[in-house]
User: What shape does this take?
Amino acid sequence: MQFLNLIFALSVCTVTFSLHLGANERPNIILIIADDLAWDDSVPYGHPTIRTPNLTRMAATGMRFDRAFLTISSCSASRSSLITCKYPHRTDAEQLHWPLPENQVTFVELLKDAGYWTAAAGKWHLGNQVKNRFDRIWEVDTSGFQLPSGRAGESGEFKETAIGDAKSGCADWLTALNARPKDQPFFLWLAALDPHRPYDEGILEKPHGANDVRLPPYVPDTPEVRKDMALYYDEATRLDRFVGDVMEGVRDQGIAQNTLILFISDNGRPFPRDKTTLYDSGIRTPMFAVWKDTIAPQSVCKELVSSIDLGAGFLELAGVKQPSSMDGKSFAPLLKNPGKSIRNYCFAEKHWHDYEDHSRAVRSHRYKYILNDYNDLPMTPPADAVRGPVFQAMLKLHQAGKLKAQQQQCLTLPRPREELYELVSDPHELNNLAHHDAYQTVLKKHRDILQSWRLATNDTIPAMRTPDEFDRQTGGVTPARIRPRPSKAQMKKTVLKE
Assistant: This one.
């Protein structure tokens, strides 16, 4: 066991860092969370046509992180992990829509106890038990990302009640910023609904067109696919506008020199083989940090960062001791020294998200190892993506024998038990090297690292599987769907009774 602990310690090695700030100099912190924005769908990460001028401004005036990763590619579970600085399986909120239990400690309440004013605006998706960790919350309604309950949800169509910019989830961001007390530091959790499905046409004066779309090789190139992707781009551009509003609000209030603004996404784009997967298209996140006169303009960090490292970094910047129960390692040293390594590996999980699944991954600078515990199940996308035009086009092409081999991963059974990818030459993770003789040493190393992490974090396979709430071909509702969705503790007494 000492050997396993040593491996785990080395894999998440950390450094000590301090800005030596006084009590009155503690920085304000603004965390902006996109909803389903892929890591490379912005200009700073090389996209040639999508319009993201304010993310471009963040990269120009601050730092871009090239190897930032989420612990899970699932909306609520990703947020629960982020706010607790814990791996999903340690939050008791690892499945979609499971509320974060009251007994979980978040970095927000620690900031609050240390004198920060804390507020959230936009998408919540954390349940009711931890709302008291914030001084104020401006919460959008759930109609933009959850189907109605009962018979109303059987059509598979969202019944949105918001209109106009309110659909973005960002309309109250400036309200929250302007409501801050002027005599104390503040933390803002600003969470968008963009670019989560469903999509509307006409939200931009100049919408993206089919020729603006850049498709990954694992989805088919058809008119309906390009149209759907272009609408997703439109929502990314709308989100970008609100990011600019926050940056300008901070500047206009004269607090840019003492305010860290950090931008990430909660998971990958809501398309097949992206969101919910453990590929980089699912767990790699865009990440920008701006802090005038502290972070060097146009700086780039190529070191590994996990989303659980963010809260740990916020605590360090605020001069608050991190509880030993938290898994994250402070990212704060990178703000001054982007070349300083804080970890050698990032770990990620896949759990139930509309459909049952259970997988784990470890990501190093060059390689990705994935272990599929339920490889008898297909890699079905989220239900809203199943109902969407891209997956339905894939099904039609597959039935006609016209779907390319690299586009069939969501339909292939059985899935490989193990996957290994060399990410420099294969960034889309299409060539599984797990059975190649030349990579057996690499495979064993990453397999052992993942196993050591699972032992160290008490990660186990559930005794019972969770029923699918939607049909895997049509996305239609099954009898297993209950709203509000029971918590993990409640489900253990009923659906998951052991």
Summary: The first helix runs from residue 2 to 11. Residues 1-20 have pLDDT under 50 and may be disordered. The CA atoms of residues 86 and 325 lie 8 Å apart. The chain has 13 helices and twelve strands.
